[in-house]
Amino acid sequence: MSKDELFELGTNLDGVDVAFRRDRWAVKGTRAEKRAERSVAFWFALAGLAGLAFGLIYVFWPKDAKGNGIATGWEYAGIDDPGYLMYTVYTPLLGLTLGLAVLSIGIGAVVYTKKFIPEEVSIQDRHDGGSSEVDKKTVVAVLGDSLTTSTIGRRKLIIGSGLFGVGAVGTMAILPFLGAMIKNPWKGGDKAALWVSGWTPDYPGQTIYLRYDTGRPHDIVLVRPEDLDAGSMMTVFPFKEAHRNDEHALFEELRGIRNAVMLIRLRTKDAEGAIKRRGQESFNYGDYFAYSKICTHLGCPTSLFEQQTNKILCPCHQSQFLATEYGKPIFGPAARALPQLPLTVIKEKGPDGKVEEFLVAASDFHESLGPAFWERKTT
Ligand code: FES
Questions:
Q1: Ligand 1 center from residue 373 Cα (angstroms)
Q2: Which segments cross the bilayer (predicted)?
């Protein structure tokens, strides 16, 4: 049986009556047909270019275009910062190129269907049950016929542009996962971004204070032990004295994505019964315990502290950590404890000349912060 006969048999066996069928281009190779082909190729090529643009923006948009240490790219910039415009257009540009690429693929497919797939009106009866061997064979013939009559096989321009467009859109989907392979996250060795935070001293013995965020980077308010009531929590950030007059460094300390720390003052009874991690027995200062605020599941801020149960909650996927047990996860998808910041106090003269106690970090975190990654040794 020829392919056409099998096709007809297939439609008949399926109870399909092809009432009307007409090739879109009875005369092949006309200028109109070529024009139609180019219009499809245009949309696929546009999808490819938009996908390419997405990839270039994603990979090469600078963090610091001016090289002056001030964020002028994808990293957050405040409304008064020089890089504000670059920062504000970054995400919309990604959205625009992604949307344009997907839309162009869709339009290209619709235009192709309208211009090249034969016009057809078919009527089919509904039936139940599985398919017989003959049905399966004829389905293959029908699909083969569809491929032939779609004329895609001889349209090299459309195939090429289609592969370009679909390839670029597919690349967009996996780009975030390839990101770490394109940019070396370990550039800088021990100082690579994943190993350090604002709590990492610039030199051994540097004092790093705990401070509040008042909303104004230059407004430095240090944390004193008496500032918290028992059973309460506050978010604190690092402050290095060397940065006092450096507006940008102060801003970075407050906005650095790995810098936020939950300072918790447990009730004395709870603090006395707290279970500590081996080697980290001295990390708390009295009733004060400090944990990284960056969830070890996917990096959301673990902003909620339940006073009655001493649980720390992450609102993203409901992970719970126990403040009385070294930040250990007790519920939800997070598998690692929240890293604990070692605390101590120093005595210093305050602005009014009186000697006061201030909470400071006794050292850097002893492990890297945030979600797991392959090279991480700690559990
Ligand atoms: S990011 Fe915290 S539970 Fe998922």
A1: 15
A2: 40-61, 89-112, 157-178
Whether the Cβ atoms of residue 293 and residue 305 lie closer than 8 Å to each other: no
User: For 62-114, what is each residue's pLDDT tens digit?
Assistant: 776 555 555 556 777 767 777 778 888 888 999 999 999 999 999 999 999 99
CA 256-260-266 angle, 5° bins:
170
- Paired tokens of 14: 């399926």
Beta bridge partners of 17: 123
Residue to mutate, 293, 295, 369, ligand 1, most ligand atoms under 8 Å from C-beta? 295
Cα of 293 from ligand 1 centre, angstroms? 11
Distance 239 CA to ligand 1 centre (A): 27
Contacts of residue 146, Cβ cutoff 8 Å, sequence gap at least 6:
none
Q: How far is CA 185 from each of CA 189, 207, 309, rounded to the nearest angstrom?
A: 9, 28, 38
Residue 11 per-residue DSSP state: H
Residue minimizing CA distance to atom 1 of ligand 1: 298
Q: Which residues of 286-304 are buried (b: 16+ CB within 10 A; e: fewer)?
A: ebbbbbbbbbbbeebbbbe
Distance CA 368, CA 192 (A): 11
pLDDT tens, residue by residue, 116-158: 988 888 888 777 777 778 878 888 888 888 888 888 888 888 9
Under CATH, domain 197-361 is a member of which superfamily? Rieske [2Fe-2S] iron-sulphur domain (2.102.10.10)
Query: Judging by DSSP bridges, how do beta strands 119-124 and 304-306 pair with one another?
Result: unpaired
Query: Quick check: CB of 372 below 6 Å from ligand 1?
Result: no
Diameter of the chain measured on Cα atoms: 103
Tell me, what DSSP letter sits at residue 201? -
Tell me the CA–centroid distance for residue 283 and ligand 1, in Å.
24
CA distance 95 to 119: 36
